[in-house]
Amino acid sequence: METKAPAKLDPITLEIIIARLQEMVTTMEHLLFHSGYSTILRESHDGSCTLCTTEGYCIEGSGGPLHLFSYYYTIKSVLDAYPLETMKDGDCFISNDPYLGGTLHVPDVVIITPIFVNGEIIAFSGSHAHKPDMGGLVPGSSGAAAREIFHEGLVLPAVKFWTKDGVIPEVLEIIKHNCRIPEIIEGDLRAQVGCTLVGCDQVRALCAEYGTETIKAAMPEIMALSEKRLRDGIEAWPDGVSEAEAMVDHDGVDLDKPLRLHVKITKTGRDIEIDFSQTNDQVKGPTNLRPQVSHIAAVMAIVSTLDPTIPFNDGLRRPVKFINPEGKITNPRWPAPVNSYFGLANVLYSTCIRALAKFNPARAVASPGIGLGAIAVGYDQNRTGRKAVQYELFVSGQGAKSEHDGSSGTVGFLNVTPNTPIEVIETEFPIRVKRYEWIKDSAGAGKHRGGMGNRKEYELLGDATTTLRLGHQFKYGGWGVFEGKDPQTVRAFFNPGTNRERPLKPLETVRMEPGDSFLVEMPGGGGYGSPRQRVAEEVLEDVLNGYVSIEAAESDYGVAIDPTTMKLDPTRTAALRKA
Predict the structure, then answer these.
(1) What span, in angstroms and rounded, lies between the C-alpha atoms of 393 and 382?
(2) Residues 6+ apart with CB under 8 A from 528
(3) Where does a domain end: 228, 247, 262?
(4) Separation CA 408–CA 451 (nearest Å)
(5) Is residue 274 within a helix (H) or strand (E), and if so which, with residue range?
(6) 557 and 445 in one domain?
(7) Which residues are bridge partners to 30 per DSSP?
(8) Cβ(36)–Cβ(184) under 8 Å?
C-alpha cells in the first residue's frame, strides 16, 4: 500500500531542511573518517552516518549505502532493550549483532544516540563502522573455519555504551578484552560516539532555528518524497516478470557444491516484488546474507536501474515487497555464520541488475568485477612491537554501460570505498607491496569496455596470519550484456614465481613467515555491446595504454594493429570486421 504523505510544509522550507540535514550527515561522516584510528575506517571509509526517526527509519544518510537500511533493525533492538522513556540525554547505545540487530556481520559496530530537544527525543543519530578485529577464530574475525556466529567474534546485543559522564568503563573493557588490537578498536568507537553527538548538537540547532515541530513534520515528508519518486519511476516501466541467476563457487566448506543465487522480479503498477525463494538454502560456511543485506542489495539495484539521484532513505522500502523465506542463503537461521557476506552481496546486487534490465533496457549494465572482498593480515607485531591487523578492502572494475566504458579501481556496487594507499599500508604494517598494476585483457570486451582488473602482490616482512575473503568467484565470474564479453575471474597465489607456489582458495587462512608473498588478481567489469562495434581508434588507445593486448584487439574487437609501428592497419581491420 502506498504511504499517504503528511500535510505538506512550505516547499522552500522543506528543501532547505533537506539540504541542512544532508550537510549534517556529511559532516558526521567526515568526522568519523578523520578521527577513526583504523585504516579500514579512515582510509577505506567502511562506515556511514545517519539521522533516523524515533521508530528507526533512516531520514538522511551518508557513507556506505549498504548500511543505511540496517539502522532500522539496530534501533529496533535498542528500543526493545531500552524504551524511549528510560533514555537520558547523553546516552549512546552499541550493538553488532546481525540477528538481534541490523549489522551486516560481526565486525560492523553501530552506535545509536537519541537526540533530545527540550527533554523530548525527536530522532536518533547513528554511526556504523567496520572494525578491523572483533575477536573470533582469526585476526580480522572473518575466518574460513567459522561454522556459527560465535566463531566470528564478540557479539554485542544492544547495550548502553556511553552516558553524559562518558564511556561506561565495564562495557569498554569487555570489548577491548575480546579484541586483538584494543587501542585501535577503542579509538574507532570513540570516533563513532563523537560524530553522533555532533549530529545531535546540529539537529538541536536546526530545531532552534526552524522550530521543533517543523523539523519533526519534515521527517516523514522527506521519506515520502523518495517513495513517490521511486513509485513514479516504477510505474513508467512495463508490467511483467523477469528472472536472473548467478552461480558462486562454494561456501568455503563444501568445495564441490556451487551456490545458486536466483531472483524473480514482478512489477505491477507502482509496486515491485523481489522473490528470493528459489535461491540456495543457507550454507555451513560464512557466506550467508542476513535480510538487511539481501534486501538493501535489491533496493540499490532498483534505484540504480531507475534513477540514482533519488535520495536514499527508508521511503525506498515501501514500494518493494520481499519474498525471502527463512533458511535461505538470503535469510539464514541463527546462528549461521555471516562474516564473508560481502562478495555474495555484490553478486546478488548484480543479479538483480541483470533481471531489472528487462524493465529498463536503456540503463542495462554489465556486471562489475565479481569476486570482491578483502584480506585480513594479523601480525604478531607491527613496527612498534604491538599486534596489528591490516584489514584491506579490494577494488575491481565497473561493468560497461550504454554510453561509456566501466570505471576502473572501484567497488562494484558501492562506489564510496577508496583504495588504501600503498604508502599507508607499508608505513603502518610490516609488509611490502611488490607490485600493483592493471591486468591486460582483464575487462570484458564490448562496444564499451568494462573497467580494468588489477594485480597486487605483497611480501611479508614479519610473521603473520593472513585470511583471504575474495567473494567465492574464482570459477564463476561476471558477465557482459548485449553481446558484450565476460571479464576474467579472480585468482590468487601463495609465493608466486617460486618452487613453493600454489593457488589460494577464495576463503582461506594461511600462516606466513617473513619472505612469504601472496598475489591477488581482481577481475574487470563486463562489456556492453558487440566488441566489433567499438571504434577502432579507441581499441588502439586501449592497446597503447596496456589495457588490451594486440592479440585480443584482433580476436575480440576485429582490430588489426601493426606490432612494429603500433598503428592501425585499416585494410586488415576492415577484413576482420567483415568476417
Answers:
(1) 20
(2) 364, 365, 366, 399, 400, 401, 402, 446, 447, 448, 450, 480, 481, 482, 484
(3) 228
(4) 4
(5) strand 271-275
(6) no
(7) none
(8) no
pLDDT score for 413: 73
Query: ∠539-543-549 over CA atoms, to 5°?
Result: 105
Is residue 353, in this structure, part of any structural domain at all?
no
Range of the domain at 556: 535-579
Measured in Å, how far apart are the chain's first and last C-alpha atoms?
55
Q: Which of 166, 198, 228 is the last residue of a domain?
A: 228
Query: 389 has which bridge partners?
Result: 378
Q: Are residues 447 and 548 in the same domain?
A: no
* CA dihedral (531, 535, 536, 538) positive or negative: negative
Residue 239 CB neighbours (<10 A): 11
Find the Cα–Cα–Cα–Cα dihedral 318, 324, 327, 331, rounded to 10°: -40
Q: Are 201 and 214 members of one domain?
A: yes
What is d(CA 401, CA 2) in angstroms, rounded to the nearest whole number?
Answer: 32
d(CA 553, CA 556): 6
Rounded to whole angstroms, the Cα distance separating 372 from 394 reads 6
Q: What is the pLDDT of residues 472-486, one digit of tens each?
A: 789 999 999 999 999
Q: What is the mean pLDDT of residues 111-122?
A: 97
Q: Over the Cα atoms of the chain, what is R_g?
A: 24
At 95-106, the pLDDT tens digits run 999 999 999 999
pLDDT in tens, 509-568: 999 999 999 999 999 999 999 999 999 999 999 999 999 999 999 999 999 999 999 999
**Judgement on whether residues 450 and 521 belong to the same structural domain of the protein:** yes
Q: How many domains does the chain divide into?
A: 3
Residue 569 neighbours by CB under 8 Å, 6+ apart: 560, 561, 562
Contacts of 303 (CB under 8 A, 6+ apart): 230, 310, 312, 316
Classify residue 105: in a domain, yes or no.
yes
This prediction's pTM: 0.94
Residues 126/50, Cβ–Cβ less than 8 Å: yes
Residue 441 lies in a domain: yes
- Which residue blocks in 36-155 are alpha helix, DSSP H? 39-42, 70-81
Rounded Cα distance between 98 and 92, Å, is 19
Q: Do 546 and 438 form a contact (C-beta atoms < 8 A)?
A: yes
Would residue 433 count as lying in a domain?
Answer: yes
User: C-alpha angle with apex 399: 272 to 142, nearest 5 degrees?
Assistant: 80
Contact by Cβ (8 Å): 339, 106: yes
Question: Do residue 511 and residue 568 come from a single domain?
Answer: no
Q: Are residues 424 and 568 in the same domain?
A: no
- For residues 78 and 143, membership in a common domain is answered with yes
Instruction: For residues 115 and 218, state if they share a domain.
Output: yes
